[in-house]
Amino acid sequence: MLDTVIRNATLPDGRRGMDIAIRAGRIAEVAPGIDAEAGEVIDAGGMLVTPPFVDSHFHMDATLSLGMPRLNRSGTLLEGIALWGELKPQLTVEAMVERALRYCDLAVTRGLLSIRSHVDVSDPTLRTAEAMIEVRETVAPYIDLQLVAFPQDGYLRAPGAVELMDRALDMGLDVVGGIPHFERTMGEGAESVAALCRIAAERGLRVDLHCDESDDPMSRHVETLARETLRHGLQGRVAGSHLTSMHSMDNYYVSKLLPLMAEAEIAAIANPLINITLQGRHDTYPKRRGLTRVPEMMAAGLTVAFGHDCVMDPWYPLGSGDMLEVASMGLHVAQMTSRTGMREVFDTVTVNAANAIGLEGYGLAPGCHADLVILQASDPVEAIRLRATRLVVMRRGRVVARSAPAVADLFVEGRPGSVDPASYAPKAAEVAGD
C-alpha cells in the first residue's frame, strides 16, 4: 500500500505520462502506469512535476524590512550596507523571527522548500544568529534552511569580527561566509579568504563567500578562493556568490580563471535580480549589467545556481519569493534563449542549486525525499515563461500548499469562454531544436 501516487506527470527531462509512487515520505518508484493501491491519488493532468525550487543565496535576517529606518535612495550596494548598519541597532529577535516566518509562508506557496540564508554576524549581540536559528528550527518540518555565518562588515575590517565568527559557528550556523572585496585592501581580502577556508576545513564545514561583488575587473578574490579550496581539500564544498567583477574582466584572464575554478569544483551562485540592479551604478552609457558569465561557466563544467538574494530589504525594494522570476531575469540578461539554454536556466533554481548547497535526498529518483511541485506548465521552458502557478506543493509526501489554476474568464463574442495561458505555446516549440 502506497501513501500517494501522482499520475500522468511530465518530468523535467521530457518524459510524459509518468507516475510517481510515494511511501513514508520518499519516492518509491517512478514509472508509467504504476499498478498499486494508494491512500491518495493526485492527477497531474500532464503538467510538469519537478523537485522543489531551491534558493541558494538569500538574506532572511533582512527580508521584509523595506523602509526601516529609511529607503535606499541611490539604489547602490554601499548605501544598502550603510542602511543595514543603521537598522541593526533597532533589530529585535522577535521582529526578525516574525518577518522571516512570514517570508517562509510565502516561500512554501511558491514551491520554494530549501533556502541558504546569509546571516550577518557583525553585531556583538549576535541577535541575527539567535533569531535565524529559531527560524531554522521552526520551519524544519517544511523548509530546509541553511545558515551562513556572514561577516557583513568584513572579517578583518570590523573590530571583533574574528571572534564573532567563531561564536556564531559555535552557536550552530552551518556554513562559513565572508566578503573579501569589502576588506580595506586587496591583500587583506586575500588574507580573509585564506583564514575562512582554513576555519571551514578545521570544522568540517562548507564555504560560501560573497566574492567580487564589484564592477572592478581587478577584484579577483575568486582566484584566491580556488587556490585555498585546493589547498585545504574543500573541492565540492565551496561556493562563490555574486562574482560580478567577472562581467568586467578581460577575456584572457577569464580563460585562465574558469579552468582553475573548475579544478577546485567551486559552485558559482549568481543573483540576477540584484546583480543587474546594484551593479553599473557608476556607469553612464554603455551601462554594465553586472551578471557574471553564466553560459561560459556552464560550458567550463561549473555548477551554476541562481539565488533570489533579497526581498523588500535595504538593497532591493521588490521581490516575490518566486525562483521562476529569478530564472526569467537570468535567462534574459545572460541571453540564454536557445531551448537548451532555457532548460539549463531551469536547473539553476532546482538541481544545480541543490548541488551547490549540498542538499541530500533531492530529486525525482527512487529513494529521494518526496518533495515535489506540480506546475501549471507543460515543460521547464513554459514554467519560466509563465512563472507557472504552483498547483500542488508537497513536502515529504504531504501536501503543504495548493493553488487554483490560473484560468481567466473571457467575455468576447465568438471567442472561447476561458483562457488558460499554459495552453498557448505553439506545439512546434515543444519539439523544435535550437
Automatic annotation (TrEMBL):
InterPro entries, per database record: Amidohydro_3 (IPR013108), Metal-dep_hydrolase_composite (IPR011059), Metal_Hydrolase (IPR032466), Metallo-hydrolase_Enzymes (IPR052349)
CDD domains per the UniProt record, alphabetical: Bact_CD (cd01293)
UniProt keyword annotation of GTP-binding present: no
Domain of life: Bacteria
Gene Ontology MF term list: cytosine deaminase activity; isoguanine deaminase activity; metal ion binding
GO BP annotations, alphabetical order: cytosine catabolic process
Residues annotated as domain Amidohydrolase: 40-400
Pfam families according to UniProt: Amidohydro_3
PANTHER family to which the protein is assigned, alphabetical: CYTOSINE DEAMINASE
Name of the protein in its database record: Cytosine deaminase
Gene: codA1
